[in-house]
Structures are given as structure tokens and as C-alpha cells.
Amino acid sequence: MPNSFQPSLHPAALPPGTPVGPFRVVGWAGRGVNGAVYRAVRIGHEHLPPVALKVAVLAEDPRYQREQDLLFRSLHPHIPQLIGTGHWVSPSGARHPFIAMEWVDGVTLYEWGRVHSPSAAQQLRLLAQAALTLQYLHAQDALHRDFKGDNLLVRRWDSRLFLMDFGSSISPGADTLTPQQLPPGTPAYRSPEAWLFSLDARNASERYQARPADDVFALGVTACVLATGRYPEMGVPRKDVKGRAVLDALKLPRALFSAQVAPPLRELILRMLTILPEQRPTAAELVPALERAADALHSASPSVPEPEADRGGTREAPLSTSGPVWRPWLVVAAGALGLWAGALVQQEPPPVREEPSQATAAVPLSATQEAAKTETAGLGEAASDLPQQVPSPGSERAVAESLPELSEGQAQPDKKGRCPHPHQVVLNGGCWGRLKGSRGECEAVNGQMYQQACYVPVYPGKQGRPSTSGAGLPPPR
């Protein structure tokens, strides 16, 4: 029987108890430009973990199909898993698309920074996770286009970072949905080249084409705000001899050049904020650079232990004493990902589960980078070697676990950052298959655990994995 309040139901303000497809709203979680997010449970399966339910404010909003398509193709430890999609039908009969995703119990990156007052090493580790996520998207020729600290959630119990809100994202084959010259996004995070394009555009039909460098610049803005509490500003452009808009300098927060910001962190922020997009590092180059800078800072301060609660590792449950059991599903999953693996797996229980007030100063980035190079002697060397792809393994992690180590002969992504199989994942410069399972099961197929998932190395063609103990398993026939 319809309730008395149903005629006034609005997708942006659904009360607890409202059914949305197979889900029931439990509570309000947030509001974005395109929709509202609710905490919800599956009807009849309330014992299962909750989901994040994003409901479109506009009926038949086409942006949701684009977001759904990208999430469906995304399999990454720092992107929420897509659980389901559908439509919520309003009392008037309007169909509002919804997306159900993995629920992330966390806080935004900026709130995490305010609450925990993280060290520079901890900030670098979180930023490395963010860069790793951008690397994954860019390898698919996808862009987020609204990358910012408010769209990054840090999970409470293990400090894993998640990139949220793909409503402004775009991927190959997606239709253009907005008529504006600039793509959707948050102005404070727009790149200089986007702003300069809008100034030089001769007519309203010209549209700026975002590139991976735009996401990297937004990551630099995010890092600057996390480190200083202040935003960089664009400065005042000038006209060159051909009448084109030119920007010579950004207005950077003075706090960025104070002792408040460690030199390796400052140098990487400056590189991400470089005015010329071709001079910015790629996300793939940033991942190992951020990790090495964090390692260097942590090694230089061994007397200051990092908080146990902020580490990304998990506590291991005792190993099972039961005999080996057959897990053919693991082999099937491995085969589907283009991997080879053995079916005999040892059973094992799963793992137990201050804001500165600083003025800004207009400083040419070329000058600030030179100053940063002078100040980063020693520690700064870890941040300046961007082209190297593999971070130093084995060091203690403040927030993230060590990335899986590459094996000899392991498949590498192509020039576009793509692996041989569409469901394989690029991590640490190599191609991997991501499987679910315990640590014992993972080791049985020569995989490595990272962020509570098993990553199995991929080898090109029909080449088998080099024997590690004289007992290599043959590939499946």
C-alpha cells in the first residue's frame, strides 16, 4: 500500500526504507552534482555488507550509463566494485537510473588529513595510491575529469584510498554530453591549458579535449591542498605576439615553500603543477617516484614510528592445519584472465578483517623547481628520478602495502599502457591477473597479495612462468 508521503518523493531526498530496485535505503550518504548517494542494503539479504546507492536526480540521465560502463570495465583495488544497476521509478512514473557500488566506510582525503595530521611519508603513500588509480584509468584511455580530494575516500580501518564519482569521466566511444567549451569538473582543479583554451576560443562551438595531463594537474592541486591547506591559483595571463593567452606563473601558497612541507613532497607537487602539460610526469611515472620519496623520508626518520592504524597491511589469521583441497574455480578464474595456475590449493582462513593560514605568492614554476632541487639534496633524489618504474621493495609502509614485485619474463603493458587481456591489471610496470582468495591460495598459484587481493603475474604468449622451486606447474590445456 502506498505511503502518504510517496507523492513528494524526490530522488535527491529518499527517506530510509525506500525501495530502490532490489535495495532498500538505510540512510543518506551525500549529494553530488548529478545525484544523491545513499547507504542501502539488499532486500532479503540485510546481513550482507551495505552498498553505496547513487541515484540520478535527472530522469534517464545519460551520464549514468557512461559511469556504469566505465565501472563495469574497471577492476582495481582503489576503485569501488560495481554491484548492480537499474532504475528507480518515481511516483510520477519518471525513471531515474541508479548505480550500486561497494560501500566504502571512510572519510575524504582532506578530512583524513585534518584528523590525522599525517607525516609527509604518509601523504606520499596516499598520493601514490591515487596516482596508481589514474595510471589504471589512463591505460584504458579513460579520464576521470573531476579528480579532487573530495572525490577520494580513505577507508577507516585500513587507510586504503578509493577514487569515487565517475560521473564526469570519459572513455573511448563515450558520447559528448555537455555543450560547454570546457568539460565538467571543479574549476579550482582545472589545468592551465584548459583555462587558456577557453580564453583563446574563437566561438562557442570549440571544445577543449581533456588529456591525462589534466588529471595529473588535478592530482597536483590535491597534493598541494593536502600538504598546505591552500589552493594554487592560476595567476594573470598575458597575450603573446600572436594574441594568444599565455600563463607565465601560478600563484602558489607560501606554505608550500616552508618547513611545513618536506622537500621531496614539494618537488613532486611542483612537477605535477608544471604549466606546460608535456613537462608533467605521467601517472605511471609518479607511482614509483611517490613511493621512493616516501621510503626515503621514512628511512631518514627511523626513530618516529608510524601509527599502526595507518598501515595498509592486514593481520594474518592462523594457517589452517587441514589438508589440501581442490579449488577448480581458482584455475577457471586464472584461465579467464589469460593466466596459468595449478588447481591444488592449500585451504587457509581469510585475513581478519591543522590548517595553515598562508598567503599565496606568484612564483614562476621554473624558479620554484630550481629552488626545490637545491633544497632536496639527499632526500630529494628519491623524488627526482621519475622515469624509473619499480619502487624499492621491502620497506615498511605507512599506508599502502608494497606493490607486487615483477618476475622475469613477465608481460609488460604496451605503449598505451594496456595488457594483453582486457581484464588484466597494470601494477608496478607489469601485467597481472587479479583473483580473490586467501594468502595460501594465492601463493599456491605463484601470486602475491596486495590490498587483500591476489595478483598473479601474466606471461606473454604461451610462455610458462620460470620455475621458482623446480616444481613449476604446466599451463592448462
Describe the structure concisely:
Helices cover 26% and strands 18% of the residues. With 477 residues, the protein is α+β, with helices and mostly antiparallel strands.
Defining traits:
disordered N terminus, 11 helices, 477 residues, Transferase(Phosphotransferase), domain 1, alpha+beta, serine/threonine-protein kinase, 26% helix, Phosphorylase Kinase, domain 1
List the helices and strands and how they pair.
Elements: E1 19-20, E2 23-31, E3 35-42, E4 51-56, H1 63-73, E5 82-89, E6 95-102, E7 106-108, H2 109-116, H3 120-139, E8 152-155, E9 161-163, H4 192-200, H5 212-228, E10 238-239, E11 245-246, E12 250-253, H6 263-272, H7 283-300, E13 325-326, H8 328-336, E14 344-345, E15 360-363, H9 365-375, H10 381-384, E16 425-427, E17 430-435, H11 439-444, E18 448-450, E19 453-457
Helix pairs in contact: 3-5, 3-7, 5-6, 6-9
